[in-house]
Amino acid sequence: MKQETWSRIAAVRHQSPLVHSITNYVVMNNTANALLAAGASPIMAHAHSEMEDMVAIIGALVVNIGTLDEYWVKSMELAIAQATALGKPWVLDPVGAGATPYRNEVLNKLITDYKPSVIRGNASEIMALASMQGQTKGVDSTNAAEEAMEAARHLQQATGAVVCISGATDYIVGNDKLVALHNGHPLMSRVTGMGCTATALIGAFCAAHPTELFEATVAAMALMGVAGEIAAEQAMGPGTMQLHFLDALYILQPEDFIQRLQITQQQDAFSV
Ligand SMILES: Nc1ncnc2c1ncn2[C@@H]1O[C@H](COP(=O)(O)OP(=O)(O)O)[C@@H](O)[C@H]1O
Ligand SMILES: Cc1ncsc1CCOP(=O)(O)O
Ligand SMILES: [Mg+2]
User: Based on the structure, what is the number of domains in the chain?
Assistant: First the structure.
C-alpha cells in the first residue's frame, strides 16, 4: 500500500500532467508553485472564449470557488461541461461552503448539474455541502470529525464523487472504501492556501491516474501530509513553512516517504 502510494507520486513526477485550475486570487501563486514542485504543470485561465480549447489539452480540471463571481462561475460551467464531454476528471474545492447563500447556490448547481470526480474540503465545508444534497441528520453535533464523516458518506453516495475531508486526520471516502491519513502538522493551517494546494495536487494525481481516482486522491493527500510534516520540522513559523513545504514536495524521496506515511484503511466505509 505504501509502496503503491509512492509509485503514484513518482508517476506524477514522470508524467508531469497539465492541470488547469480556475481558482481564487489568494492562492494562485501557492498552488502553481506546489504543482511545479510536485512535478506537475499548472495553467490558470478563466476567459470564456478559451475554456473549451484549454480543457481539450489538459489532464484534469480543478474548480475552486474561493473568490467566485458571476463571470468566473460561467467559466467554471464551460470548463466543467467540456471536461465532462471529454471524460476528463474534475476536482471541486468548495471554499467557504455554507458561508453565503450565493456560494451555496453556485455549489449546489455545480454538484447537481455536473458531477465532480473528487470533492476536497475541510470538515465544515463537507458538512455544508452534504446538507445541500439533502442530508439533515447530525449536522449540529459537536463532534466535527464524526459528523463530517457522515456528511462525506452522504455526499459520496449522492454525487458518486470521491470525497476527501481534510484536517488533523484526512479521510478519503469512496464507494465502500475509506482511508485515513495521519500525517501533517498544525502549522499547515497557519498558511493560506494549504487546502487549495491539496485540491490542486489531487487534480495532478487524478490526471496521472484517471481510472483510479480514489487511489489518486489518497496519494495526493499522503504527499501533502508527509511534505507538511517535513516542512514543519525545518520551519520557524508560517513564512518559512511555506518555503520549506515547496522544497519538501520537490526533494521527497521514497525511503523517507514510506517511513513517515501513516495510513489506515477500511474496505467498508459504512463500518466506521
Ligand atoms: N491540525 C493539523 N494537523 C495536521 N495536518 C493538518 C492540520 N490542519 C490541516 N492539516 C493539513 O493541511 C492541509 C489543508 O487542510 P485544511 O486546513 O483542512 O484545509 P483548508 O485550508 O481548506 O481548511 C491538509 O493537507 C491537512 O491534512
Ligand atoms: C482566504 C481566502 N479567501 C477566499 S479564498 C481564500 C483562500 C483559502 O485557502 P485555503 O482554504 O486553502 O486555506
Ligand atoms: Mg479551503
Answer: 1
Ligand 2 residue neighbourhood (C-beta within 6 Å): 24, 26-27, 66-67, 95, 192-196
Among residues 43, 42, 39, the alpha carbon closest in space to that of 9 is found at: 39
CB 114 within 8 A of CB 134: no
144-184 residue pLDDT tens: 555 799 999 999 999 999 999 999 999 999 998 999 999 99
Please give all residues whose CB falls under 5 A of ion ligand 3, grouped by chain where several chains appear: 95, 195
* Cβ count near 259 (within 10 Å): 10
Question: What is the residue range of 231's domain?
Answer: 2-271
Which atom of ligand 1 is nearest the CA belonging to 93? 22
Q: Report the Cα–Cα distance between both ends of the chain, in Å, rounded.
A: 20
Residues forming a β-bridge with 19: 42, 60
User: What is the complex's ipTM, to 2 decimals?
Assistant: 0.98
- Cell matching residue 132: 445541500
Cα torsion through 89, 90, 91, 95, rounded to 10: 180
Query: Mean pLDDT in runs of 10 for the chain (272 residues)?
Result: 96 98 97 98 98 98 98 98 98 95 96 96 94 56 63 95 96 95 97 97 98 98 98 98 98 98 78 48
Is 190 annotated for ligand binding?
A: no
Which ligand 2 atom sits nearest the alpha carbon of residue 64?
5
Residue with cell 470548463: 79
Domain CATH number, residue 147: 3.40.1190.20
Q: Which triple of cell numbers denotes residue 168?
A: 488533523
Ligand nearest to the CA of 187: 1
- Is residue 31 within 8 A of residue 179, CB to CB? The reply is no
